[in-house]
Amino acid sequence: MSTQQRQAAAGGPYFEISQRFFFDAAHTLKREIEAEGSRRIHGHTYNAEITLGGAPDPETGMVVDLGLVRQAIEQLRPQLDHHLLDEVPDLGVPTLENLCAYIWRALQPSLPALTQVRVWRDGMGDSCTLR
Q1: What pTM value is reported for the model?
Q2: Containing H/E element for 5?
């Protein structure tokens, strides 16, 4: 049973809040298709959105204070922004999938209500979502 279903069953509301951010970074990627351009160092503007879910606190009316969310993001963002992703410790191969997992691992300890991480590149039209 999902968190949303449990809360609905308990009669309480379930809300999701989200915060977007972006970072510019370069990477290389070894692949069979579109191989030549991918193997050279190249860069993208990456967009990310994190989603947190739960019932609002009765006193504050908030699932999570968005100021705390932005604070956690601002601690993470410098680890990615204007870096060669191939060299970011614990990222692994710099794919959208690994970026989602990296962001999740970095934010989840301070934001336990985290339910989703999405990373996309507008210029390429591709995205990945981790739930």
Answers
A1: 0.88
A2: helix 3-9
